Amino acid sequence: MMKRTIWILLDDRNGSVSQAKGVENALDQNLFDIVEKKISYNKLAGLPNFLRGRTLLGLDKKSRDLFGGKMPDIVLSSSRRTVPVARYIKKMSQEKAKLVQLMHPGLAGMEEFSLIFVPEHDKGKKSGENVEYIVGCAHQITEKTLEAAHEKWEKEFSDLKKPLTAVIVGGAIKNRAFSEENAANLGLLLKKFHDKVGGTFLLTTSRRTGEQAQRVLLEKIKDIPCYEYLWGNKGENPYMGYLSEADNIVVTGDSVSMCSEAVGTGKNVYIFEGKDWLTPKHHRFVESLYNKGFAVSFDGEIKSFAKSGKIFNPAADIAKKISLID
User: How far is CA 7 from the centre of its chain?
Assistant: First the structure.
């Protein structure tokens, strides 16, 4: 069987890049020649997609030069900003290239995509026969990536008192700050949890956490053994090591990517929702994880986990469906 060429569009947004990389890693290399197209934007990228149309408007010159020559068989687009680029490639291929989109592309050109994978919590947006709904989002967490992280980070954490609980903290979303009240409440719940399980926390914070909220959180857990990698710290980020070595994971519900990666480990995952913080969409998302048994709400108590035996790996399912495109 002749291999088909698939172009993977990668931009400057870590969340969408992680999703695309997850699908890329799950693709069968016996079926596809995989080519990454790393694109950068100029100031026109902020224009609405209906104005950018099927053009490379919004890309810098170096990025525009990536899209000449022989066109691919399939294009994987992973954010709304990459949609016009995917549509341009389809136009230049004389409509032969098949387009696949991760996350809702918006209304402009939606019918040009062969497959669109939309999170269940976005079901309120326009649908169609080319739309398939998934729980959460694609991610790069697999048995292989966890094994690699274990080999790299096991020694670093070997002297820490067990069990290890990863604490992954996000922050502000859509003009909703991660308040000091929520930071304090998270700290109190973590202290309550530690009183029951003991061990050491593996803590990391985000650019979105905010300095004051971070300070409040750290004050609440200052007496608990804690390995910290805070936003702005130098050195290699141990995030993958946290996921591979933790016995439990506590993650804030503000990030679909962080929560999806956490449950992708198969570990016991607790999600902190906070007060007057998450959007209705975020609440729908975390409820979908609860309903399918992938995670539970974090209230400081130890919970029992009824594992379904299923691995949370949307990327593998998406890659399989891409391979079936005619």
Answer: 20
Residue 40 neighbours by CB distance under 10 Å: 12
- The domains of the chain, with CATH numbers, are 4-134 (3.40.50), 143-297 (3.40.50.2000)
pLDDT digits (tens, 9 = 90+) for 208-265: 999 999 999 999 999 999 999 999 999 999 999 999 999 999 999 999 999 999 999 9
Q: How far is CA 138 from CA 24, 285, 303, in A?
A: 10, 14, 26
Sequential DSSP letters for 25-56: HHS-TTTEEEEEEE--B-GGGGS-HHHHTTS-
Question: At 229, phi and psi to the nearest 5?
Answer: -135, 100
Report which of 7, 12, 113, 116 is spatially closest to residue 54, judged by C-alpha positions. 113
Q: In this structure, what DSSP letter does residue 208 have?
A: T
pLDDT digits (tens, 9 = 90+) for 121-153: 888 888 899 999 999 999 999 999 999 999 999
Distance between the two ends of the chain, CA-based, in angstroms?
13
Nearest to 298 by CA among 233, 252, 263, 242: 252
Mean pLDDT of the chain: 95
Q: Is the pTM of this model over 0.90?
A: no
Cα(118)–Cα(112) distance, integer angstroms: 16
| Backbone phi and psi for residue 237, each to the nearest 5 degrees, phi listed first | -70, 125
Q: Encoding tokens for residue 313?
A: 């790996």
In 78-210, where does DSSP find H-type helix? 83-92, 143-157, 180-197
Type of residue at 106: G
Side-chain-side CA neighbours of 142 within 13 Å: the count stands at 16
